[in-house]
Amino acid sequence: MNLEQMLATVTPEVFENLKYAVETGKWQNGQRLTTEQRENSLQLVLAYQAKVEKSNQQFTIGEDGEMVMKSKRELQREFLPETDIARFNQDDI
Question: Which residue in 44, 38, 37 sits closest to 15, CA to CA?
Answer without folding.
Answer: 44
